[in-house]
Amino acid sequence: MRKFVFLAAASIFTWLACTNRQSSIATLDNTIHNWLTLHLDSLEAEAEHLQALVAARAPEPELKTVFRDCRRLYKQLEWFSAYYAPATSRQLNGPPLPEIEVEENKASDPAGLQVIEELLFPYDTSLHKALQKEAKGLVSSLIPLRHTVENTRFDTAHVFDACKMEVFRTATQGITGFDTPLSGWGLTETGVALQAVRDVMQLTGAPDSLLLRFDSTIAATGKVAPDGGFDYAQLLVSHLNPLSAAMTDWFYAEGLQPIKYPQALKNTARTLFDSGAFNTAYFVHNADAAPTPDKVALGEMLFYDNRLAGNGRRNCSSCHVPEKAFTDGLPKNVSLDGGATVLRNTPTLLYAGLQQAQFYDMRSPTLENQVLDVLHNEAEMHSSPERVSAWLNQDTALKSRFKGAFPDMQDSILPRHVMRAIAAYIRELHPFRSDFDRYMRGEQTALTAQQKKGLNLFIGKARCATCHFMPLFNGTAAPSFATTESEVLGVLKAPGAKELDPDMGRYIHTKLDELKYAFKTPTLRNISLTAPYMHNGAYRTLEEVMEFYNKGGAAGYGIVVPGQTLSADSLQLSSAEIAAVIDFMGALTDR
Q: pLDDT averaged over consecutive 10-residue blocks of the chain (591 residues)?
């Protein structure tokens, strides 16, 4: 009888726990729905207000005021929109550039708040029809966002993850003014976005200590530095990084269960700059290609084996020299036959595994495709995975090692095993051991005062961080790391020359006018070791590179490049400021 009573009590306790848990989930779901609906109503009303003012040809100051309010109201919803409805989010606040769909060979016109900003700063009345179209489109784009709100069930794990991703987004895009390059509202909107995240975190039951950390971070976004500028470095190391760390600590201390599906950043990453923050497998397109110690060891062996090349006299390290950050120090390397040069400058392989496209022209979506391309290329290797696997299969010991690394392997090493092994080795080339990384992890003396000044310029006045996104400093943007961007700079044939380099970049493989002279945004990590620069290797020093950007790319030299994505306006950087930015980039060298 006593046993029956105990079991009954245990059953009742379990039922109550499940009921309370379900009740808690239902309460949070209802609370978040109400919060989002209230804020979406406000944004919709203000967007309709903007549409009415545009139709009435209201004066510029009034248009800009209401537009600013629209942006702020959107920023309150960004944590939700960017996470739960990324396609809609792009329509609402995507870059003012065509969206390229390579597989379908078409480009879609940009839309949303960033396009409206370009039409209002400065306001050109001759473009009134275009402004009318964008204002109307903004209102229409809110319809699918409302549908997403209505059809989403919210739980603590996903809401928390969305909020944490928004903190990362503010650290890498918000403070840089990525989506407010003309109005300059980046820092102000960062405070707005963080306030919304704070409110949502409060709804999930976050403690007062965490909410107070939000308050101090929000306050810091409005503080002007003693020199009249803004100390982005201090905001990152003293506020944004500790904030995301405190959020993560609270989540796990509460015993809450994280989301299950893999993302680019590990759930346990406390900041964007943790040494083990990245989930390498996220960037792998096939489970069998995920790096393991055995695959990496085989890939490393192959990387340095001259038998890779058709003539038996070249391997991967012939062009990707470890001591030169896996580049070669040449404008363009010599072709396999020694009679000419290859098409482009050799890029670093460091951090190549943490991006969504390979080669300057982004023609390969994976590292495996890149290996295949290089092996087949007559100027580079003039070989093939089939030829490599043929001589590998003659070595019994190597066959045994491959079998251990690839359990699905039958009797022979296949071409795909060759490509996956080399790719696995390259995927592990992401040390994150620079002075900058040490500084971001709390070592205040890791950067000199000059380098901190350079970091602040890099994020602020020099606008480098709007294309070279932290923490990878390439074109793959946090926090999703889902796409890798290219830019049209109008690279010159030689520094200062008023002639474009003839290489058409991505256009060679995808015949869209928007891709003429477009090249992938490469990483700046280890850039002090990877001279010469640009896809043509024509720029010998970082000073030459900075001068090119400071003048506004090709446009600054009087050359018209349709579709130039780099602002044509001069950055107005002094020689001392350029030196500071270069000193900072030196702190991106891995030790």
A: 42 44 76 98 98 97 98 98 97 88 76 97 95 97 98 97 98 97 96 98 97 98 83 97 98 95 95 95 91 97 97 96 97 94 97 96 96 96 97 96 95 96 97 98 97 98 97 96 96 96 96 96 98 98 98 96 94 98 98 90
Tokens of 489: 């700079």
Q: How far apart are CA 165 and CA 244, in angstroms?
A: 9
Q: Is residue 504 within 8 Å of residue 298, measured between CB atoms?
A: no
Domains of the chain: 2-261 (1.20.1420.20), 281-427 (1.10.760.10), 435-586 (1.10.760.10)
| pTM confidence score | 0.94
Residue 101: which H helix or E strand, with range? strand 99-101
Contact 351, 523 (CB under 8 A): yes
Q: How many Å is the Cα radius of gyration of the chain?
A: 26
pLDDT of 109? 86
- Identify the three-state secondary structure at position 106: strand
How many H-runs (helices) and E-runs (strands) does the chain carry? 20, 4
Cα 118 to Cα 466: distance, rounded to the nearest angstrom: 16
Q: Where are the alpha helices (DSSP H) in 154-240?
A: 156-169, 186-203, 208-220, 232-235
Q: Which residues share a beta bridge with 533? A: 539
Nearest to 538 by CA among 280, 279, 332, 270: 332
Q: Give dist(CA 419, CA 520) in Å, integer.
A: 23
